[in-house]
Amino acid sequence: MVHLRSLFQTAQMDKVESRCRKAFDAYGVSSILWNVTYECGLKCKHCYIGETTKKQNELNTDQAKTLVKQIGDMGVPLLFMTGGEPLMRKDTLNLLALCKEYGITTVLSSNGLLLDSEKIAELKRYNVHFLAVSLYGSQARHDETVGIEGAYNKLMKNVKECIDNDINICFKTVVSSYTYDMIPKIVDKGMELGVKSFYLCDLLETGRAKGADNWAVPKEKWRELAQYLFSKVIVDGDAEIDLGACPSMATLALEHFQKTRDVTHAIERLGHLSACPIGRGPMGISAKGDILPCIFLQQFSVGNVLKDDLRTAAFHPTVQAIAQKNGLKGACGACQYKMLCGGCRAKAYLEGDIFGEDKTCMLTKP
Questions:
Q1: Does residue 351 contact residue 359 with C-beta atoms inside 8 Å?
Q2: Angstrom distance (rounded) from CA 360 to CA 344
Q3: Could you tell me the pLDDT band of residue 236, with boundaries at 50, 70 and 90?
Q4: Strand 240-244, strand 2-3: pairing
Q5: What is the pLDDT, as a whole number, of residue 40?
Q6: 169-175 vs 240-244, strand pairing mode
Q7: Residue-wise pLDDT tens digits, 158-215
Q8: Is the residue at 363 inside a domain?
């Protein structure tokens, strides 16, 4: 993931990132991204999970609590709870309460539709650091994308109530041919409401998007979007802009910002974390407990929490090879920025070779 504001505007780590770095240095794991369930009431056509919307050997409550305790005992400070839709699990709020007990900072990723005043009050009580909600554009575009009429209006109502209760909001969206023209509108809407963060993830052609016809955004359009986002970092620097599944945006940003500012801090941080952070701290966990080098690598397991230790999985040979950028092929292997970026390994895996080149790299032609 690429954090544009903190890399190139504030030039400093926040407390959560500082704790994550210490955890990585001590245990090899800095944060966990956990699909707590695959169940979801929406039908987003780009969903990387796909049609697996019902429970399939998901961790039960006792197993989930054991996992939270393991994360807490390891000293891992940050847990992203995503889905599916996490609030489809009846015990999600109890798991958030347990995270608070263990001092784990939580980010809850949700479609926002199952929230109500009582649940919002509980999110505040359990110190949820961010509520990350999916937004795909205008009312019509959003409802069409998620397949539910009225979803936009209900989401906006709940977002405003969360903000009124001092819960930090992140707007998430996918960068695709059907959302591209909406991204400035999403950012403007967020700025108007007081949203603290934006997460833009490039389309991965897996799950429901597998075999998608011209849904991916061409590189020239991505580069135009990059210039818009870079300007937002400078002009409206109060909100973070995170970019997912597009690590080469970090190198594009370096080349852009080094013309006008000192990027030494950004290079140091990217050297530690890497824009594709496999093996550099973050780990994924599937709904059934599979340990994943990346949350988008749902079919590439390096263990299972029911029988394997997270610390051992973090040092899996393939994970470590990617972390050290060993064995990268094609343009990624020859790139001067490979230690800062390394290309998106999930995209390479979907092309047939986890060490292959990232064909969506912003620095390569066309």
A1: yes
A2: 8
A3: low
A4: antiparallel
A5: 94
A6: unpaired
A7: 999 999 999 999 999 999 999 999 999 999 999 999 999 999 999 999 999 998 878 9
A8: no
Residue 217 is assigned to a structural domain of this protein: yes
Peptide bond preceding 86: is omega within 30 degrees of 0, i.e. cis? no
Report the predicted TM-score, pTM, of the whole model to 2 decimal places.
0.96
Q: How many residues does the chain have?
A: 366
pLDDT given at position 15: 83
pLDDT on residue 38: 95
Average pLDDT of the chain to the nearest whole number? 94
**Domain span including residue 57:** 2-326
What is the rounded CA–CA span in Å between residue 330 and residue 338? 11
Overall number of domains in the chain = 1
pLDDT digits (tens, 9 = 90+) for 87-139: 999 999 999 999 999 999 999 999 999 999 999 999 999 999 999 999 999 99
Closest listed residue to residue 364, CA positions, set 330, 340, 325, 339: 330
What lies within 8 Å, CB to CB, of 192 at 6+ separation is none
More confident residue, 365 or 55: 365
In this structure, is residue 356 part of a structural domain? Answer: no
Task: Tell me, yes or no, whether 16 lies in a domain.
Answer: yes
The CATH number assigned to the domain holding 173 equals 3.20.20.70
What HEC string does the chain produce? CEEHHHHHCCCCCCHHHHHHHHHHHHHCCCEEEEECCCCCCCCCCCCCCCCCCCCCCCCCHHHHHHHHHHHHHHCCCEEEEECCCHHHCCCHHHHHHHHHHCCCEEEEEECCCCCCHHHHHHHHHCCCCEEEEECCCCHHHHHHHHCCCCHHHHHHHHHHHHHHCCCCEEEEEEECCCCHHHHHHHHHHHHHHCCCEEEEEECCCCHHHCCCCCCCCCHHHHHHHHHHHHHHHHHCCCCEEEEECCCHHHHHHHHHHCCCCCCHHHHHHHHHHCCCCCCCCEEEECCCCEEECCCCCCCCCCCECCCCCHHHHHCCHHHHHHHCCCCCCHHHHHCCCCCCCCCCHHHHHHCCCCCCCCCCCCCCCC
Look at residue 10 in the predicted model and tell me its pLDDT: 62
